[in-house]
Design goal:
9 strands; mainly beta; 4-stranded antiparallel β-sheet; 5-stranded antiparallel β-sheet
């Protein structure tokens, strides 16, 4: 068996690669889904966060389709926040302290595309980030994420003229 020299291995790493498989960058004129802000169309998303079937957080917020260039950064980014007591090691296996602790949840708009809004989701104690993930909230149908066993995030669209059930 012949070993390759480091130079020949480096040469392989420098070969040009086709970019056709990479995601394209979005144009400012692209129409994407967005939350809050300029949204006055009457369309909304219902968000539900549950742990082992128990409600942790729920919200309904406006959504709309806008040109990407129309999305202006908010001085403080809009963040939906909630708190609950839970076992931190459940969300981060190497968490050293056992027992229930206050956990803060945060949800924000991480991006939008033609069919959905990508929501950033974070759970943290005062000392440590336990979970940092995303949930794809489809604008045209229900979405469900379970990144940690028992922690279920769902979203569903509510169209103009329809209303969520009273308990939502």
């Amino acid at each position: 068996m012949r070993l390759r020299s480091p130079v020949s291995v480096l040469g392989l790493a420098l070969l040009p690669v086709s970019l056709s498989g990479q995601a394209r960058t979005s144009a400012p004129s692209e129409v994407v889904w967005h939350w809050f802000g300029v949204c006055a169309t009457g369309d909304s998303l219902v968000l539900d966060v549950r742990l082992d079937g128990n409600a942790l957080y729920g919200a309904t917020f406006p959504i709309c389709r806008v040109h990407r260039r129309e999305i202006k950064p908010e001085p403080p980014q809009r963040i939906l926040e909630f708190r609950f007591d839970g076992e931190p090691h459940r969300f981060r296996g190497r968490y050293r302290v056992s027992g229930a602790r206050p956990i803060e949840g945060s949800i924000w708009e991480a991006g939008g595309d033609r069919y959905a809004i990508r929501l950033g989701v974070q759970l943290a104690t005062e000392q440590q980030v336990l979970l940092n993930t995303t949930h794809v909230a489809r604008a045209g149908s229900a979405s469900r994420s379970e990144r940690v066993r028992g922690l279920v995030i769902t979203t569903r669209p509510v169209r103009r003229g329809s209303r969520p059930a009273p308990n939502e």
